[in-house]
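Q: Hi! Curious about what 5-methyltetrahydropteroyltriglutamate--homocysteine methyltransferase looks like structurally. Here's the sequence.
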Amino acid sequence: MSLVTFLGFPRIGLKRELKRALESHWHGNTPADTLLDTARTLRARHWQLAREAGADVVPCNDFSLYDHVLDTAVLFDAIPGRYRPVFAENRLDGYFAMARGHKRGGHDLHALEMTKWFDTNYHYLVPELHAGQRFALVGDKPLAELREAQALGHRARPVLLGPVSFLLLSKTVDGSDRLALLDALLPAYGELLRRLVAAGADWVQLDEPCLALDQDADDHAAYRHAYAALAAAGGPKILLASYFGALDDNLALAASLPVAGLHVDLARAPQQLDAVLDALPEDRVLSSGVVDGRNVWRSRPDRVLPLLRKARERLGAERVWLAPSCSLLHVPIDLDAETALDPARRAGMAFARQKIEELRVYADALTGQAEAEAALQAQQALLDRQAQQPGVRNPAVRGRLHELSPQMALRRSPYATRRAAQAGALALPSLPTTTIGSFPQTDDLRQARAAHRAGRLADADYEALLEAEVERVVRFQEAIGLDVLVHGEPERNDMVEYFGEQLDGYLFTRLGWVQSYGSRCVKPPVIWGDVARPAPMTVRWSTFAQSLTEKPMKGMLTGPVTMLQWSFVRDDLPRETVCRQIALALRDEVHDLEATGIRAIQIDEPALREGLPLRRADWPSYLAWAVECFRITAGGVRDATQIHTHMCYSEFNDIIEAVAAMDADVISIETSRSRMELLDAFVRFRYPNGIGPGVYDIHSPRVPTQEEMLALLRKALQVLQPGQLWVNPDCGLKTRGWAEVEPALRGMVDCARLLRAELAAAAA
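A: Let's find out. The predicted structure is below.
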């Protein structure tokens, strides 16, 4: 019989129990023991859930209090020196200092850089290494969680980030070769493997997701060297796990490594199965990732069963494991909790628990169990019927797509002409100041929103509360001297969900939470049908805010690529087609905002870089349609209307030409954690338009000093012309408190004023 397993499970809990425990601890309301008890409870609950769903083996050490890459760095003592004094006082405080920064007890520390985990919306902390780095096994987290699972009666497989991917995902602060540190790292891995086998582990899962990327000869040599050493270490059998794409030219390497099993992603790359079967040595297990671990749709038996039958025919049942394509970290936990969903739509969906149940049914059907075979036939029939339901195809939307012309993706004039028109219309000073959009979402706001949704707060009372909050935010911005204002977005629950709720073709869950980073969770909407905008979405609040002030007020939209990337997307249309539908809907909103007198419109695209395919050969096609969709959204507005966009936690070096091709008048980007390193891309390319490199890291609770922000701005002026430079935070302020936001923004505005005076004096 084929074994049913999975690579990892969501950590946060069905009702975001981990989020609440973390934030309570960070606020000083609960001790560390309470947080750790919550973590143990969640692990036990999730293991039991998976076992009841039909898993034969559960992973362990896939759980994290913040991030699994950070866990790996701490486990092997890759702790930058500046954090060690905090670790010496309290290891948990030191761990969170690396994740969030730390400003107390005489310490004032920035957090580690954070960036996207491949092409997902999960963010990982980037380990900092240096030439001569020493590693040592200093923790016991994998062992402790293995023992927990064993004590509860589970057959468990520890999960570790593999050594080569760990190094490739890290950065060296001195520019040295990351892979040169492999020999220093491998003894620590070897020691851990020996301890795991002594603790009763028969398998260990080593994740090497970088095998889905373009790898060169040096990378291949590193894998060979690493796995020869690990095979000789005397540890458990190794399951080498790759995911997020096909192995392709890394397949021969992966198949040649001395491991006992290989996991491959057959949901994203089913076409690789034949090559994998041909390359796999006779003594290896194939973990077949046939169920999509990144989307919420039930699998199609007419696609999955042929793959599994082919694998079993070639390898035999015992050598074929059934698994999701990747960790289930990227989907919600349990669809059974979504009692309010339309049953017709809900029937075609699967969350983490249901994906494991699907795998169990496939495994049983492969052994000839009639009940399982009938269940798969019924599932296929259901999915076929759903494709014909009303709303899946909207003739009006399809007609607009058919009529789409290249002219719709163009502005009326080149940037130089637009810049002059905007200078006259907006009358901004040099180094103009603004924010990215949202202001703190207080507990009062969240409670009012929940009460309104539940019918406990009348529409008029809720509107009055929102108007009061918008006025408060506008008056605050005027008082501190910001130049381009925002309305603060108090009416918005999430930058994607808010818009999706007002568009046709979307549905929403109640508990469909997914971790983005740390305690930050999002509830991605689900795109099931053609997307259209029945009515204006933001005009009411932008025009109300503009009526309160003479200063320019930005209209705030989430861009089409981000609306796509941060949703669970239908799987019956190409993604670029869905993105164009969204772009046309948002274009209508942009033109309505402009018609009401809004002079600046921000179309956020933080997910543009995230959506970049993992293989470079696939980049041009993606970038062409992604840029086109942004330009469709902004196309046709007047020269005097200033179009902004925002991107965060992205490496721009490889796509700077595409960023420029978006032709936004102003782009704001995250740069404070990287200390302006991301501006290197703009040095090479000489980006012509306005740029706002963030000077305030809003993902950390610490308030930056004016000296820090001034240093960052002066560094930016070494790269940018004064006429290009905008001054802004890294990202929206929704997750921060007013006690942090007010002094940080006042300091930011003061820095801009000081630099203006310096530049004026130098020019005199």
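A: A fun detail: The chain has 28 helices and 22 strands.
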